[in-house]
Amino acid sequence: MSDNHESRLDTLRQKAEARLGDLHKSMEGLSPDELKVLIHDYQVHRIELELQNEELREAQNQLQAARDRFTRLFNDAPVGYLTIDSNGMICQVNQTFASMIGREPYHLTGRPLAQFISPEDRSAFHGRFRAFFKNPTGKKMEFGLQSTSKDLRVRCVGRMESTTHTQPESPKPRHLLLVVIDVSEQVRAERRQLLMARILGILNNSQSLAHGISQILESIQEETGVDACGIRLRKGQDFPYYVHHGFSREFLDAENTLLARDAHGDVCRNAHGEPDLECTCGLVLTGQTDPSNPLFTPNGSCWTNDSFPLLDLPENQDPRFHPRNTCIHQGYQSVALVPVRADQEIVGLLQLNDRRKNFFDKKLINFLEEISSSIGVALMRLQDAQMIKDSEERLRALLNEKDKFFSIIAHDLKSPMSGLLSLSSVLADNAHSLTREELQEAASAMFKSSEQLYALLENLLHWALMQQGMMGFAPGSQSLRGVVQAGMEPLQSVSSQKDVALRNLVPEQMLTQVDVPMVSTVLRNLISNALKFTDRGGSVIVSASRDGDMVKVAVQDTGLGMEQDSLDQIFTLGKKKVGAGTRGETGTGLGLVLCKEFIEKHGGQIWLESEPGQGTTVFFTLPAAPKDTAENKAKKQAVGTGPTG
User: Fold this and answer.
1) Which of 7, 94, 338, 526 is least surrounded, with the fewest CB atoms within 10 Å of its CB?
2) 621 - beta bridge partners?
3) Can you give the pTM of this predicted structure?
């Protein structure tokens, strides 16, 4: 190129010198005036030439400025530009495209475009490239680009360009000019919109909250690629994980409960009596986030893309209660905690953890807040549906109980009432002709029927009051032996008539925290049943022993015993429990059902152990009196029984 330029200059100089020689020859015969005119023309031409040169330089400057502007427009365009040849090799790129993938333009020239396409899209790119290069008009391609910072989703359109080759006789190579647009945000927004629609569909169609939330977490994890996620929901005073994906067992063992406990294992509470919840989850769940802190959002969420500096946070600047930092120690650099609200009340927490730094952005956090809001609405809907279902089930149960009551009244009142009517009819018609012994026998039979009726009616009254929530419940510290003894006294006559020993072996100092009328009803029913099914010469023993915070009471008889089938249905209303007693005594079974309700009202349990011919033992538990109450009562009893002055 430089040799040709030098050759052209030499040729121009030779021509100029030849003309100048001719000019000198022609000037030899000129007069002075003619020379003046010639010199004047020469000077004018020289000035014109200088002016032309200035215009040329100005044009060159303008051309260079235009060239610079074009270069800036090319490099600083909001979209990526690149030209590639038929083999997919990059010929030229602008700065925007180079910045998309985090490299300089000169690093890209001469390299295949497919090298920078996401592996999952390369085969599709190779399959479409030939057709696209041949005729790009009206076509577009979409694929992922691998960047040094993050992966992008781009969309390309193109047109063919021809470049003039230095050798005219060679064919002009064809190049494809690609316009590359970053559509990552658009694609992400579209995908999140589809995800939200899918989540709403799950929430609206799922009948099981656990299954629905599990599907939601799977969808979130699939869409975002987050390492681990979970949802905490309120359970009593705590917020354990309801559903989780990706967390290790070690992590869950350390983090499942948020309740702060003191050295004695008791739950720590604030000035309002509410339990203290530990670490960042507890801070979000208690609504104590500070919107002015960059860690928190106005909606009460907490998120960070670099959790490690939190380890160095001074104690007086750390808003968390008992920070555990388990997430940090497990290597999770990016953490997002989003509250779940139901009717403005925080009832749970959506948590996402990732070991990569800078995983979250504000748009993703806002999207997660929308999801948590939808979950909260679904929770309210499911809770309302559950309340309706529970109400319907309770209504059905009440109707069934009503039917059972009618059955009990119709069947079990009929027998004693029939006996009373028959006996009273006999007395009314034949009293004058009956002997004293016959009158005594009739009166005794009428008394038994009346006693049976009274017991049944009393149990029915207690049952009705219990079902309507109208029966009082006022537990207090009581001597269990005294309560048992009071329950035995009305049944002493029955035990004497049947010659059955009735023994109270409850320790003197055993105190329980009970409602006396309820427990007395329980004891009366159980002892009465034991007497009913115990033969002459047998025994009924009531004993008790301490079992942790409870007292276990046993009512043991030496009676007929029961089959396993009877034991399985013993506490079910309306089922046939056992046969008649040793003297043909009958019962409805309502007393045992009532006993179960009264014992469970105290927080205890009731069960039976029995074998045919080996007797029956009914066990039930009652809360022991608090230690300080028991000690005070024992001291008072000791003072009352001690010597007087």
Assistant:
1) 7
2) 552
3) 0.49
